Amino acid sequence: MSRLSFDKASAKRIIRGYHGSYHEVWQDAHGQKMLSCRTRRSNHLGVAVNFAALNHFRKEGGQFVGLMNAHFKVVVPIAQLDGIRPWDGDDFIVIRPGDLGLEVAVEDNEPCPY
Q: Among 58, 95, 98, 109, which is 20 to 30 Å from 42 by CA?
């Protein structure tokens, strides 16, 4: 039986550089895994996610994706990212709060430079 949320308090990092990306994999006390994706740039709202790593994580049964940058930090079920695809030839997808139905209050909402 799968839980509906990832237990961040009990999570431990188990993999760095997952599938050749800069992402990490964390596992909570219930055995659920989260692909942690962090963008350190603070000049845009999106979080860049390596699309190949995301798909590999999905095939391995990963349940959650953590998206973090200077403007927001959220953990979502991996199924919530199903409809997001990279632009032609891109290796990354950029996930913005609006893609997840979230609102983020920032003064400068410039397009992501990716």
A: 58
**Whether domain 8-100 has CATH 1.50.10:** no
Beta carbons of 25 and 34 less than 8 angstroms apart:
yes
Dist CA 68 CA 46 (whole Å): 9
**Residue found under tokens 């993999």:** 15
Residue 59, helix vs strand vs coil: helix
Q: Identify which has the larger pLDDT, 4 or 65.
A: 65
Enumerate the domain spans of the chain. Answer: 8-100
- Who contacts 24 (Cβ-Cβ below 8 Å, separation ≥6)? 13, 15, 16, 17, 18, 35, 36
Global pTM value? 0.82
